[in-house]
């Protein structure tokens, strides 16, 4: 994610964070995407750039103080993490009664991914499962983020085995998406000995589409809601769970292709969909182009084969 968002990783400034949130709530004329999102109290997702429960959190307790502040404001929060141990040991008292979903990372390779990609530095997958069960017993919502499924590295069998584990432990949803390809990620994979040419070959739409179809079939077979799949390549399938941003949360952005797809399937007209979903965050004209298939830079709704 640093490749996208920049290299500056530093602890959160709690004073500045609180000031930004409180000022954003008061701002009746927001001029940026972030200020508009704060003013509308959009779901806040924590952990998609840096894990909030990495080991340094034990010393500084920054996440705990952030959660206390957001709980007072009754803010909807999604916490994404691979380190469930500290969360369960320390912050269940805050999360109980809070408008919160814990989104646990669990990629399709399970233990093998933990060894290869996470270098055994995070909570072991089996322990994450036990921690999720504990959270559910304490009436805290949990979701499982399985992104990415890496075509050419992960297999359909890997995916099915992970789905079986989730199902047997009472977990009901899983998210998937194919590989987000850029030079930074490719270099990292190559360095640890992964066959990047094979991944490139299977990651293309014509190869990925039949794989995604199998993943959808497997999820249906085991009664697992598969969240946020590739909206074009998944054809007429519409996700029942918004696992990309958390389970059963109000979507942080309704002005997107995933929301439009489900509404189109309900029979609503594109013009009415745009009116219903636009909340001031994003560009209306760009949305119109994507909806009506006028953009040559992106897949559009017209690329879906119903």
Question: How do the strands and helices of this protein lay out in sequence?
Answer:
Layout: H1 2-5, H2 14-26, H3 33-39, E1 44-46, H4 57-60, H5 62-72, E2 77-81, H6 84-90, H7 92-95, E3 100-105, H8 111-116, H9 125-137, E4 141-145, H10 156-168, E5 173-175, H11 183-191, H12 196-203, H13 205-221, E6 225-227, H14 257-265, H15 270-277, H16 284-292
Helix pairs in contact: 2-3, 10-13, 14-15
* Overall shape: globular
What's the mean pLDDT score? 90
The spatial strand order of the largest sheet comes to 1-2-3-4
Distance between the termini: 33 Å
CATH topology of the largest domain: pyruvate-formate lyase- activating enzyme
User: How many extended strands?
Assistant: 6
* Class per helix and strand makeup: alpha/beta
Strand percentage, roughly? 5-15%
Q: In the CATH classification, which architecture of the largest domain applies?
A: Alpha-Beta Horseshoe
Largest sheet: 4 strands, parallel
Helix content: 40-55%
The secondary-structure element order is: HHHEHHEHHEHHEHEHHHEHHH
CATH top level label of the largest domain? Alpha Beta
């Amino acid at each position: 994610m640093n490749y996208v968002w920049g290299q500056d990783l530093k602890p959160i400034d709690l004073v500045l964070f609180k000031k930004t949130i409180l000022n954003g709530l008061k701002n009746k004329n927001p001029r940026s995407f972030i200020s508009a999102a704060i003013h509308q109290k959009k779901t806040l997702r924590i952990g998609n750039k840096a894990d909030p429960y990495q080991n340094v959190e034990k010393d500084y307790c920054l996440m705990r103080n952030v959660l206390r502040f957001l709980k007072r404001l009754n803010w909807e929060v999604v916490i994404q993490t691979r380190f469930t141990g500290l969360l369960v040991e320390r912050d269940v008292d805050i999360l109980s009664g809070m408008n919160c979903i814990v989104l646990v990372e669990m990629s399709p390779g399970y233990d093998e991914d933990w060894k290869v990609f996470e270098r055994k530095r995070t909570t072991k997958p089996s322990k994450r499962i036990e921690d999720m069960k504990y959270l559910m017993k304490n009436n805290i919502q949990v979701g499982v983020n399985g992104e990415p499924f890496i075509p050419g590295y992960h297999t359909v069998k890997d995916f099915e085995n992970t789905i079986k584990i989730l199902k047997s432990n009472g977990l009901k949803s899983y998210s998937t998406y194919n590989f987000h390809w850029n030079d930074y990620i490719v270099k990292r994979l190559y360095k640890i000995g992964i066959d990047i040419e094979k991944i490139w070959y299977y990651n293309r739409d014509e190869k990925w589409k039949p794989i995604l179809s199998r993943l959808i079939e497997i999820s249906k077979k085991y009664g697992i809601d598969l969240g946020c799949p590739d909206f074009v390549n998944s054809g007429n399938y519409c996700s029942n769970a918004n696992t990309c941003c958390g389970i059963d949360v109000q979507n942080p952005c309704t002005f997107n292709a995933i929301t439009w797809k489900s509404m189109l399937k309900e029979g609503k007209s594109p013009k009415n969909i745009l009116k219903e979903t636009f909340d001031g965050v994003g560009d209306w004209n760009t949305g119109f182009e994507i909806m009506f298939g006028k953009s040559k830079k992106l897949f559009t709704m017209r690329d879906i084969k119903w």
